[in-house]
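HOLO CASE FILE
Compound: zinc ion
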Amino acid sequence: MGTTDSAAGSAGWIHVREVGPRDGFQNEPERISTDDKLLLVGALMRSGVRRIELTSFVRPDVIPQLADGAELLDRLEPVPGVSRSVLIPNERGLDRALEQRDRFDEVSVFLSASETHNRKNVNRSVEESLDGLRRVLARAGEAGLRRVAVIATSFGCPYEGAVPVERVAEIARELRDAGAEEIGFGDTTGMANPRQVGRFFPALADALGPDVELTAHFHNTRGQGLANVLAALDAGCRSFESSFGELGGCPVPAGATGNIATEDLVSMLHEMGHGTGIDLPAVIAASREAQRVIGRPLGSHTLVAGPIDWNARA
Ligand code: ZN
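Model generated. Tokens follow.
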């Protein structure tokens, strides 16, 4: 089976959202120049990726790495069929983003399932976060944007330990009722295991009904990212987030790896007969370019090993 066959996806179509330009660049110690970001984002948007998270409208003094969000959106050439998403932390962020309403297609909002993580992350209780996100989601809907809500620490919290699936479902229902068309579940510090994931997605699908897309956001913190992807697939999940080059993803503890790599995810999905629309060599080329820009080797396996060549002859 080669890339051409697997692109057709005999085992079914899987959505992949590339989050490296936000989740990855935000976690780099050095600021990446806007010119370099445009180069990398452009390469990703031409690789067949259908969904891409470009930046976040957080306060520039909080995350200086993404302070050029408005300029990036302004200068980025749209690619037909590629949905551009931005992360919105609060209403002020939405106000700023809406000044460029025609430069993106989707918003993502976020909160944590556990109180302690939410307080440490955004200095609010979960209930206070939900109140704010309801207003953001309502206004984003009025602006005609697709709405994604991401729940961090869905599979466990580094401060509180276990997070009951009923609690995640309760928060997810609130977000659905507030207008989210898609709910993402983040394994923020890599605590999920495949058995847990296999129980999680059917429970959430039951709780949310058929009109909400469920998306998995796994981290490879303990090397279980792709095992969790397979468990989620078997449990009916058809949408995943990943980051080219394995960039970013909340490295806690310091030095830990974060997001699963897009090229590792796409390689596995294609080998299993799923279609993504993504050209694997093109993503690998983008990650290689990111290595050059950032000046250090990146962690993805497929970037090192390359795609499988089934037509190889000794
Ligand atoms: Zn992540």
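CASE NOTES: The chain has one domain: 12-305. The chain has a mean pLDDT of 94.
CLOSED: yes
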